[in-house]
Each structure stands twice: as C-alpha cells, then as structure tokens.
Amino acid sequence: MIRAFSYNEFLFLLSAVQWTLALSAIAFIGGATVGLVIALARTSDIKAVRLAATGYIQLFQGTPLLMQLFLVFFGATVMGLDLNPWAAAALGLTLNASAFLGEIWRGCIQAVPRGQWEAASALGLRYPGLMRYVILPQAVKVAVPPTVGFLVQLIKSTSLAAIIGFTELTRAGQIVNNATFQPFLVFGIVAVLYFLMCWPLSLLSARLERRYALATR
Amino acid sequence: MASAYDTTDVPAPRPVSGEVVIRMAGVQKWYDSFHVLKDIELEVHKGERIVICGPSGSGKSTLIRCINQLEKHQKGTITVNGVTIDSAHRHLDQVRRDVGMVFQQFNLFPHLTVVENCMLAPMRVRGTSKQEARDIAMKYLARVRIPEQADKYPGQLSGGQQQRVAIARSLCMNPKVMLFDEPTSALDPEMVKEVLDTMIGLAEDGMTMLCVTHEMGFAKSVADRVIFMDRGEIVEQATPAEFFTNPKSERTRNFLGQILTH
Ligand SMILES: Nc1ncnc2c1ncn2[C@@H]1O[C@H](COP(=O)(O)OP(=O)(O)OP(=O)(O)O)[C@@H](O)[C@H]1O
Ligand SMILES: [Mg+2]
User: Fold this and answer.
1) Global ipTM
2) What's the DSSP call for residue A45?
3) How far apart are CA A42 and CA A37, in angstroms?
4) Per-residue confidence at B1, pLDDT binned at 50, 70, 90?
5) Among residues A33, A108, A100, A17, which one has the least CA distance to residue A61?
6) Positive or negative CA dihedral for A80, A82, A85, A90?
7) Mind telling me which NCBIfam families this protein's record contains (chain A) (predicted)?
8) In a mutational test of the pocket of ligand 1, which residue from B28, B34, B262 has the highest number of ligand atoms less than 8 Å from its CB?
9) What percent of chain B has pLDDT over 70?
10) Residue A1 resides in a domain
11) Are residues B111 and A141, on separate chains, in Cβ contact within 8 Å?
C-alpha cells in the first residue's frame, strides 16, 4: 500500500516540528540549569568539586549522544522505571546539553579578569554575591553568542531521539517515507524544515558575536 | 645626588597614636618553592601613613595582599583591628570590611555605573538600603571631586577619574585602613597628580594608609614611615627624612640611586 505524498503528509511533517522544538526547549532549559551548576563547580575553589565536574563533562563529551540516549532509555527499564521515549529523550538531551553548556560557560566565567574577583573580594563580597553581582553579569555577555550557537547543535541533536521512538521531525519523516517511498522528497522537506529552525539562530549568533567583538575592541 | 634627597620639604615626624591597626608577626609565604615573604614583622598604628617601596618582584604587592587575604600566608599571624586572620570566614569578613584596597588597574566593575560601583558593597555586604547607599556613594564621589560622573560607566572615564572612583568605592565601606598597590603606575603622567592629591586629602583626614608606590615626592611629603623591601624582606624602615638622607643599607642606597637616574 503505497500512498502518494500529499498535502496531508506535509502537514504531518510540519506538526512534528513542534515536537522537535518542544524537545529542544526542554533540553535547553534543563541543560542550562544543570549546566550553570556544572560551570560553577568547574570554577570552584574546592578541588573535589572541580574534579567531579570535570569528570561529568568528560563523560558526556567523550561518548556519543546516541549511546547516552540508549543508556537512559534502556537503563531506566533495567532499573524498573517505565520511562517513555519522550521523557528518556528529554532527560538524555538535558544531561548531554548540561555538560556542553557547563564547559562553554566555564570559559566565559574564567574570561572575567582576575582583578574583578579581587576587587569584589576586597570589598567583602562573599562567593554568592560576588558571582551574582560581579562575575556572572560580565560572563553572560561573553556567553550569549556561543550559547545560541550551541542551541543550533541541540536542535539538530534532537533528531537522534527518533531512534528511541520519539516522534519528532526526523521520526515523522521516517514514518511518511515508509508510507510513500519518496525518500528524496520527504527527507528533503525534513532537511529544509530543520534549516528553517536553525538558520535564524545561526544568523543571530553570528550577529551577537560581531556586536560583542565591537564592544570589547 | 644630594639635591634629589633634598629634605627641606620633609615635614617633622608626626606623633601617631599607640593603637595598632595592623600587626604582622613572623609572616612567611611561599609560591611553591619560591620564598616570597620572609619573616615579615610590621605594625601599623592608627592614623599612620606608610609607603612601601622596593625593586620589582621584591614582594610588595604580596605583602599588602596578605593583609586582606587576596593571598594566603603560610606562617605567622596577621591581626587587623584586633581580629586575627584564621580559617574562620567570619574573621576574614570582618577584616575585609575594615580594609579598603585600591589596585593599579582600578578594577572597577565595567557593567555597573560609577554610582552603582560605589553602592554595591554597602548594599550587598552591609545590607544598607538603596537610598542610603546612594547617599553614601554621592558623598564620597563628591569627596573625590567627580559627582557629575555618577551615572557614566567606568569605560567612559579617564584613568585618573577611574582611580578616583575606585578610591570612593572603597571609602563607601568606611574602612579603618586603606591599602594602595601602585595606584598611579597605570596612569598617564598628567593624571598622576589628581590621584595623589586625592590620597593626600585622605591622609589629611587621618586615614591609616599603606601605599606601595614609587612616587618619592608623595613619600617625602605624606609618609610617616618608608619601608624598603628587597627579596621578600623588610630591609629598612625609617622616617622619610632619615630614609632619603641617610639610608642605612647598601641595598637601599642602590635602589635610591636607580630611582634617581630615571
Ligand atoms: N601567583 C604567583 N605564583 C608564583 N609566583 C608569583 C605569583 N605572584 C607573584 N609571584 C612572584 O613573587 C614575587 C613577588 O611578587 P610581587 O608581585 O609581590 O612583587 P612586587 O614587589 O609587587 O613587584 P612589582 O613592583 O613588579 O609589582 C615575584 O618574583 C613574582 O614573580
Ligand atoms: Mg606589585
């Protein structure tokens, strides 16, 4: 039973875009939250904390994202948890994103000159106030362009969630292709849809980077 | 050579109170195997103005940075206003509240306006209300004579103005003693005077001051005591009159000779 590729198939692909966006958003918010903790741990004065954060980052940067998704998805089953593909994908991507964002933001925190830490400490600010009012506001300015750049990576990474059965854009493409056998057309459309999500962000990232470069000249 | 050490402008020694604000006893510090501070003994009395000089790398910055623990010492004790520094955060907080510091590179917070730079610590460390913090900030900005720059960002100011803001920012915490680490070294020559004048004003108001500087004119006219450091040791300390006319050690004489030829 081969169906023709019709307007309905196109609408199905289009509606799958929202799941890709939703998964990206969840992974980004979760990854940013955990990533901030990782970045702070990586720049901590306490050696054990620093080492733990370094290990976490290396673990997630040194293994394929697909393996991480498998481990979360099947690992949960082994541990007797019934994690649906949606939750497994969100959790796996969150962990992965947190490691990458943590490492990006570590660099941004360390880019704030030593003198700023010293001046704030000399004024009597303790770590939380020093971070919140002096270091992080300056680190954020450096962090925005690479963070937006990473978001593009993250959106593309969500396509791997298709393999554990979560119906986002790529999985929707597979489903439509199985019914229509028009791979070039179907995956061409899927690619264009990804491009339309990522391209504006890439432009934004490049623009922010240029603006930052001008501001710090 | 003698004319450079002309002492006619050196004031007579001032009497200073007996109250000790800073006491360093047997302080030693190493960077790995490098012995950077060797058995430092130093007492600073209330209202006293001390100038520290010495060749590059002699440990001047390290010494004053140990006082507010931007650097940790490994041996000996440092007591500020009766509080001895140890591993207790409470003690460190107390010391830092009593000690203001001005850096060579100003280190103003670039993302905050001038007045916000001055308000931050009173609000976040002392819990002062915003309105009160602003009033305090404006008072000290007026004192360093730049109240009209209050709403600008540090990047819009000249070096001399930035350093005066840095001084005001420290004063807002009402410190008992001020540390200066070469406050005029990063400035264009025409801006040195405005910063030195601000420091002289502070001295006249009775502030206890510890200044690392090579401004020998400032040392002569303001200091009660000049300390000469070399290779991690306090080699000599004396009143400016003695220090400049009759230095005791060979190392001091060499140093003064070199400064003179510049
Ligand atoms: N973090 C550090 N690690 C290792 N060595 C250091 C460190 N900081 C300073 N030193 C060394 O300690 C010595 C004393 O440094 P310090 O900055 O106190 O000297 P200084 O008298 O202030 O010199 P300058 O006049 O150049 O400012 C120098 O030899 C310096 O190289
Ligand atoms: Mg120095």
Assistant:
1) 0.91
2) S
3) 9
4) very low
5) A100
6) negative
7) HEQRo_perm_3TM
8) B34
9) 93
10) no
11) yes
- Ligand 1 pocket check for B232: Cβ under 6 Å: no
* A2 within a domain of the structure (yes/no): no
Q: Say yes or no for a CB contact (<8 Å) between B107 and A116.
A: yes
Instruction: State the residue range of the domain holding A176.
Output: 7-215
Residue in B with minimal Cα distance to A136: B111
3-state secondary structure chain B: CHHHHCCCCCCCCCCCCCCEEEEEEEEEEEECCEEEEEEEEEEEECCCEEEEECCCCCCHHHHHHHHCCCCCCCEEEEEECCEECCCCHHHHHHHHHHEEEECCCCCCCCCCCHHHHHHHHHHHHCCCCHHHHHHHHHHHHHHCCCHHHCCCCHHHCCHHHHHHHHHHHHHCCCCCEEEEECCCCCCCHHHHHHHHHHHHHHHHCCCEEEEECCCHHHHHHHCCEEEEEECCEEEEEECHHHHHHCCCCHHHHHHHHHHHHC
What gap in Å lies between CA A118 and CA A123, rounded to an integer? 9
- Per CB-CB distance under 8 Å, the chain A contacts of B104 are none
* Domain count for chain A: 1
pTM for this model (two decimals): 0.90
Q: What is the CATH number of the domain that holds A93?
A: 1.10.3720.10
Between chains, do A122 and B68 touch, taking CB under 8 Å as contact? Answer: yes
Between CA B106 and CA B161 the distance in angstroms is 10
